[in-house]
Amino acid sequence: MVSFRVDGRSGVPPYLQIVQQVRQALRMGLLEVGDQLPTVREVVAAVAVNPNTVLKAYRDLEREGLLEARAGQGTFVRALPPGPPPHTFSRLGRGLARWVREARDAGLDDESVESLLKATLQAQDAADQDTA
Amino acid sequence: MNWDERSLVLSRRGGTAMAGSATTGPAPAIQTTRLTKRYRRVTALSDCSVTVPQGSICALVGPNGAGKTTLLRMLCGLSRPTDGAASVLGAAPRQAPEFLAEVGFLAQEMPLYRRMSAEDHIAAGAHLNNRWDGASVRDRLRSLGIPLDRAVGTLSGGQRAQVALALVLAKQPRVLLLDEPVAALDPLARRHFLAVLTEAVAAAEGSLTVMLSSHLIADIERVCDHLVLLAASHVQLCGDTDDLLAEHKILIGPKKDTAPLEAAHTIVQATTAGRQATLLVRVDGPLIDPAYQVEDVGLEELVLGYMGAAAPAAYARPGTSELDEPAGDER
Predict the structure, then answer these.
(1) What is the distance in angstroms between the Cα of B198 and the nearest Cα belonging to chain A?
(2) What is the pTM of this model?
(3) ipTM metric
(4) Does domain B3-231 bear CATH number 3.40.50.2300?
């Protein structure tokens, strides 16, 4: 089972926050195929959002093929999102953590790290386009 | 605080199911048509036409004195309209048992008998209502750690609000009207109150409709899927919050003639600083003027924009106001 957070100040609509958190939990291996998601009532009681917000999020994920509603039982994980398996994420995450420590030691603050990451992603995209 | 208000929490015996209570589908839970309330000199509400679909949680927002309480009191039959009509669950609101069995109202000051305990209130409610789920009140209050045997006057504001909410839910209303239920509560008590409210709506699976007035936009954004905005005694906005947000944009650009823009769209509010103009626009079709930077609007900006536009004069034409700071109209 997963629990959700809804941050009113994030600027991301609440239903999209739930969609993103489900996808994230699937990628990280916190949810597996066949697992049950909390009911609308459980989510609403925990985070005080409009019930329709949760319904809308679950419906979006059903349409994507990631979740399925089983009549009278609840909502279950049907498939994992396309992309590398969960262990790839944890391996890359460990590598990134090493790199971040190195960056901190070199005196980079979060803002510098973020802009360096963004610049690297952009440069990589440009390089990929050249070879394509 | 008077008996009439408390009677809506604890309603009266003898209620039978309302005619047409089996209504499902698209019939709105609340509908008003040109609803108007005039007191001797003051018009509290004018030409108010709103529709609230079943199963929604509708926010009622607007500056103090805009007519929010007047509207809520007319919807539960505590006040009669001077003109126009209201329909709640297909019936005209009135202080009659069969109407009150379906409609719950919590006045702003959380009307409870201060010397009575929650348990006393549960017993009174059982006596006064045909349909009464006293066990649900005990379960809710126990799970929140609220004592059932202490006089409610000795409880904290947040606990009293939870007692009042649990009681009004015990009669299993299909429409619940709440007048600034969380205004006096601290953030944690507010969150707990709203969690209980949204859970009740989820449990009712579309058969409970809520209208609540509030000034707290962050709460509204979380909890409400519909919005009615009153200002200067008039309805300024009414609809699904996602639709309303999609229909409005913020335009930032040079201060210039807005006539071409207004040919297709409506300027709700214009603010200028030096050579720059910031416009809140109700968009009708594509926006093509490249001079403007177009941004999505947040709920707070939208509400403040309409409130500000209505603030300087009761009948300000949209687009003529130039406010640096939208201000509430305190009366």
Answers:
(1) 6
(2) 0.80
(3) 0.77
(4) no
